[in-house]
Design a protein that fits this description.
Distance between the termini: 22 Å
Helix content: 25-40%
Strand order of the largest sheet: 5-4-1-6-9-10-12-13
Order of helices and strands: HEEEHEEHEEEHEHEEEEEH
Number of strands: 14
Bound molecules: cytidine-5'-triphosphate, calcium ion
């Protein structure tokens, strides 16, 4: 079922992937995080490597083994992920932003453990917006082919299409999360959207979704260049 175009396209191609959550530290023992496991991004890295791609994987804090022959760079915060992406995007033909980047970070993280005070009955955290990493890459003049993800619990395709346009992406993978799909799950269901095309993938394992996604990118890229 995988397009025969995809193998030659990915052979020797440089692919940058971000994966996993980011953790935003409050203090040395606490952080704000999210439920991304990193499995989708790691599955894409593994499958792309098998198709012959040279893969760099920028990973947030996850408990996954590095796929064979994949260059992995570990980061923790959105700012660290941004710095790693800025250092690497230009050497790659394709950037897939599969990471669940925290939208906000602490305005200030404390050097020491925050202690609650006697009688304190609440705590207000001040957050500041993180950079939009995928939108930043898509705005560069030497940008690679840029693929985003949109994990949504409702109005999935509508929100995904809005993100495709707002962030000026080449493609977005709409991802229904919740119930038995998406975060912390083996099975996934993606719909692939570009300006011209829409492809609904059947529910399958993240490895199978990754193969289909890589084949779709190869088709898009091959038709652009043809
Ligand atoms: N993304 C990013 N940097 C951010 C936030 C998101 O690069 N600071 C990327 C994600 O990796 C994903 C895409 O943008 O590829 C969409 O992320 P998502 O969280 O769905 O969209 P947001 O623009 O953050 O909108 P919201 O969370 O409000 O739905
Ligand atoms: Ca977000």
């Amino acid at each position: 079922q995988i397009s025969p175009i995809s193998q030659p396209y990915w052979q020797g191609q440089r692919l940058l992937i971000s994966a996993g959550p980011t953790f935003e530290d409050l203090d040395p023992v606490r952080f704000l995080g999210n439920r991304s496991s990193g499995k989708m991004g790691f599955a894409i890295a593994e499958q792309a490597q098998k198709m012959g791609a040279k893969v760099t994987l920028i990973a947030g804090p996850v408990t996954l083994a590095t796929p064979f022959n994949v260059h992995r760079i570990d980061v923790r915060s959105a700012q660290q992920m941004f710095a790693a992406v800025q250092a690497h995007y230009a050497q790659n033909a394709v950037f897939i932003s599969a990471a669940a980047v925290a939208d906000f970070a602490l305005a200030q993280s404390s050097q020491h453990k925050i202690k609650k005070q006697p009688g304190q009955d609440g705590l207000t955290l001040q957050l500041v917006k993180n950079p939009d990493i995928v939108a930043w890459v898509a705005a560069q003049s030497d940008k690679p082919f840029v693929v985003g993800f949109a994990a949504e619990t409702q109005n999935v395709l509508e929100y995904a299409r809005a993100k495709l346009h707002a962030k000026k992406l080449d493609m977005i993978c709409a991802n229904q999360v919740g119930e038995n799909l998406g975060f912390e799950r083996e099975q996934n269901q993606l719909t692939l959207l570009s300006a011209q095309h829409e492809k609904i993938l059947p529910t399958s394992t993240k490895s199978e979704q990754a193969q289909q996604l890589l084949a779709f990118i190869a088709e898009q890229q091959t038709s652009i260049k043809a």
